[in-house]
């Protein structure tokens, strides 16, 4: 749970390029756009295509999820 909270701290929900999880589908994605109503997401990690998602189902990946994908932890905010 602490890792989940650290993933949320300082995250700007409308930042393009953020690595996120669409909890409605369980897919990892890159946030491409946020129009104030839905996100446009693009699949990563073997998933393809773009789709839209509601804000309540989109969250940044945790550091543990990043490690499982072979990525470094998120940089800490100063």
Structure, explained:
- The chain has 78 residues and is α+β, with helices and mostly antiparallel strands.
- It has one domain (2-62): Roll (SH3 type barrels).
- Helices cover 17% and strands 31% of the residues.
- It has 2 helices and 5 strands.
- It has helices spanning 2-8, 63-68, and strands spanning 19-22, 27-34, 39-43, 50-53, 58-60.
- A 5-stranded antiparallel beta sheet has the order 4-3-2-1-5, with no helix packed on it.
- Strand 1 and strand 2 (27-34) form a beta hairpin.
- The longest helix is centred in the N-terminal third of the chain and has 7 residues, at 2-8.
- The radius of gyration is 12 Å and the shape is globular.
- Mean pLDDT is 79; it is low at 1-10.
Sheet with most strands: strand arrangement:
4-3-2-1-5
Number of helices: 2
Q: What name does the CATH topology carry? A: SH3 type barrels
**Class based on secondary structure composition and strand pairing:** alpha+beta
Regions with little confidence, pLDDT below 50 for 5+ residues: 1-10
As for the number of domains, it is 1
Strand residues, percent: 25-35%
Question: Any idea what the CATH architecture is?
Answer: Roll
Main pleated-sheet profile: 5 strands, antiparallel
Number of strands: 5
Q: Report the order of strands and helices.
A: HEEEEEH
- Calculate the mean pLDDT score and round it: 79
Shape: globular
Broad CATH class: Mainly Beta
Radius of gyration: 12 Å
Distance between the ends:
21 Å
- Work out the helicity level: 10-25%
């Amino acid at each position: 749970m602490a890792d989940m909270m650290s993933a949320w701290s300082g995250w700007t929900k409308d930042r393009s390029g953020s690595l996120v999880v669409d909890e409605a589908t369980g897919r990892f994605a890159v946030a491409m756009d946020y129009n104030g109503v839905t996100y446009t997401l693009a699949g990563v990690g073997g998933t393809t295509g773009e789709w839209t998602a509601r804000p309540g189902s989109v969250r940044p990946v945790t550091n543990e999820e990043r490690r499982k994908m072979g990525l470094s932890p998120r940089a800490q905010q100063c």
